[in-house]
Each structure stands twice: as structure tokens, then as C-alpha cells.
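Input C-alpha cells:
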């Protein structure tokens, strides 16, 4: 294998040279620096055609903010499989992943295009991690 592998973003067709040492045995998940689209490539540089959440999520936004929120959380979890569930179980979800969750929420607001409020995202976090973003009751 050469030192750099030519790849092209399937969303915007921007071309890049991906250093071969960044590829694992099964390839790599990459994010296009030009358009931020996430996609996966094999070790040989072939696009993996399984559905990628980041490309499907904008299509979900108009019809179902709840599914969009869930898709964004799945995408976020895919970056560190198991880490967020483990942190939630230990009561440290926000301590360890707060900035990433805020980025996911910002992305939710951007992709939804309308002003859906935070309810769908809040419900998705509650369902996935059993953590309520806005607990009801007085602070202790």
C-alpha cells in the first residue's frame, strides 16, 4: 500500500490524500474538512456504502426531529463505542462528554432548520442514557 490513499467525499466530491497509517484493518471513518460529511472507506480506499448517519440525518429533520436527535446521538457514540453509555452508567456523562453533547445539540438545531426547541433532543438523551437534561424539582 502506498503512503497516501486518494479518497473523495461522496457528498461534495472534494478529493484528499488519506495517510495510509491512519487506516485500520477495516478501513476508517473520516469527516470531510470541506463539508463536514462523515463517511467510511475500506483499507484500499473504496467507499463503504452502508448508510452513514450524517448524510441521512438532514433528510430526517423536516419530518421527525426525534429521529434526527437519535441519529445524531448514534453518530456521536460511533466515535467512541461504549464510552458514553459507560459514562452515563457512572453518572459522569456530562463531566466526560458534555462538550460533545453540546456540539450534537448545536448540530440538531442547525439541521432541523426550523425551531423545534430542545424537547426532541432532551427525550433522545433521556431514552438513550437515562439522563434528564432538565431535571424537574429544586436543586440540592
Amino acid at each position: 500500500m502506498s503512503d497516501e490513499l486518494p479518497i473523495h467525499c461522496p457528498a461534495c466530491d472534494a478529493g484528499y490524500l488519506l495517510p495510509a497509517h491512519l487506516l485500520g484493518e477495516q478501513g476508517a471513518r473520516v469527516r470531510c474538512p470541506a463539508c463536514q460529511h462523515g463517511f467510511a472507506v475500506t483499507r484500499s480506499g473504496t467507499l463503504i456504502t452502508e448508510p452513514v448517519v450524517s448524510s441521512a440525518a438532514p433528510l430526517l429533520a423536516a419530518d421527525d426531529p426525534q429521529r434526527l436527535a437519535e441519529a445524531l446521538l448514534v453518530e456521536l457514540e460511533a466515535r467512541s463505542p461504549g464510552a458514553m453509555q459507560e459514562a452515563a452508567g457512572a453518572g459522569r456523562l456530562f463531566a466526560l462528554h458534555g462538550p460533545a453533547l453540546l456540539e450534537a445539540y448545536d448540530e440538531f438545531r442547525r439541521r432541523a432548520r426550523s425551531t423545534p426547541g430542545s424537547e426532541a433532543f432532551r427525550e433522545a438523551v433521556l431514552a438513550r442514557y437515562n439522563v434528564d437534561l432538565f431535571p424537574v424539582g429544586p436543586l440540592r
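DSSP finds five helices and four strands in the chain. The longest strand covers residues 4-8.
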